[in-house]
Write a structure and sequence with these properties.
Chain lengths: 278, 278
């Protein structure tokens, strides 16, 4: 199979998989998700994703009682049905299925939906262009919820301008990108916004910081401004599939390219860590 | 039938209606909705709901090409399949069905989902209790999107405390409730937050303001603080099904009850307008 979907015990190709219209994900976006890289049918950073997933569930107060062991067995069965050696698996849990009423439905059971398909890792050599947009998202961006309209609109705006990602800012202070984190190199220091309610605590972001420390590169977790971003030595976009994309342009202005050796050193360290851990 | 659902041409009881898992509503909440009252199988304030619906679609840039006439014909067919003389119909349009990628899918067709069922109008005599919560929603609350986690959590918090609704505030300034607007009477003036990006421009809210003006009651569309709410002569909760619910308690403190004549006069005017318009 090229892709496979799963919903509450049923497997089917993603395009054919059906779910109840009264799943609360459908009309409230009342659920949370995770996305993992799968190389040679093995999961990368599984524990970290599961830990964040449980935190997201707790915030939404979704009583998903399946153990990690049982969940991982289903995830494994799902990826094993797809041939690709390089997949991205997505899974979400919603509060359950019920007639539409805002308050939690009594006795509803959470629904588990999974998609997986072959998705290559993004090239990390070529420099990318980014746009800048105001961050108008809610106050809990640390929660990986499926309420994603702002990210959808930002990703589309970037695409229409031939760019890879949109950098969000609140009053001139950079938070993150539409579905990735933004890291900056300046004077040999790796800097990125702290993990508060304004950004998702990206797993890849965390690994880059860990590896920088191991390499003796100073790390600074304080937010930077747009002005500082334009003046960065390098900017790097990180997510599960974006392993430190380098940048050449921000909102149409040439930026970065001033510390390529450190940029490439960190990328290399990350790829070694990635392939060494799966 | 007690209820009916509709999805892209197929009718089924809501509990049995199935939709594709790859509908972008399911994993991005990438859609908008409306909810209307239906009395004796006729729609109340249809034009106003359709107008707001088109504005929400435009904000999300969803190219829903069905004419109002064709949409209304489907809505009518849906409500006609349910016996109840007093229904609430819900409809949503999502961007389409596709593999999960944030940017808009090429060539996808929007999906139309409808639910209707008998829902009685809420009693407007009994006074209700409200809780107060910080408003952590996104920056476009004027858009009726299906990204509704904050409203879900707030409605549940209210329910658990035996209350009807949660009043949202931003830095002490009242915006609206989790799925309704909040109006205040003070010294004979009807006051409520202006229709900017912080609140939904409620259809019922608009009618209350219109009727107040017709009755010679001064109207003030400037936001009020929580402090002012505690000191209100009356508070009224309005939505499609909540026709000016009176209030007796805010966050555990007794409030209101100081201008019952004007409260009841406005409620009565609204109900007459409602039944006279359908």
């Amino acid at each position: 199979m090229e892709n496979i979907g799963y919903y509450n015990g049923v497997f089917a190709p993603v395009e054919e998989l059906m779910i109840p219209a009264c799943d609360r994900g459908v009309y409230f976006g009342d659920g949370v998700y995770e996305a993992l890289r799968v190389e040679r049918h093995r999961f990368f950073a599984l524990e970290e994703h599961l830990s964040r997933f449980r935190a997201s569930l707790a915030f939404l107060r979704i009583p998903f009682e399946m153990t990690d062991e049982a969940l991982v067995a289903i995830l494994q069965e799902t990826v094993d049905r797809v041939e690709s050696e390089s997949q991205q698996i997505y899974f979400q849990v919603t509060r359950g299925s019920a007639m539409r009423t805002h308050a939690f439905p009594e006795g509803a059971q959470p629904n588990l939906l999974i998609f997986t398909r072959g998705v290559p890792l993004a090239d990390i050599v070529e420099r990318r262009r980014l746009i800048v947009l105001p961050d108008t998202r809610w106050g809990h961006c640390n929660i990986k919820s499926i309420n994603l309209i702002p990210s959808v609109l930002a990703a589309q705006a970037a695409k229409e301008r031939g760019c890879t990602e949109a950098v969000f800012h609140r009053d001139g202070v950079v938070t993150e990108c539409s579905s990735s984190n933004l890291l900056m190199l300046k004077d040999g220091v790796l800097r990125t916004a702290p993990t508060d309610e304004r950004i998702l605590p990206g797993v890849t972001r965390g690994h880059f910081l860990m590896l920088a420390r191991e390499l003796g590169v100073p790390v600074d977790e304080t937010a930077f401004t747009l002005e500082e971003a334009y003046d960065a030595d390098e900017l790097m976009v990180t997510s599960t599939s974006l392993h430190g994309l380098p940048v050449c342009e921000l909102e149409g202005k040439p930026v970065c390219g001033r510390d390529e050796p450190l940029l490439r050193k960190l990328q290399k360290a990350y790829r070694e860590y990635f392939y060494g851990s799966i």
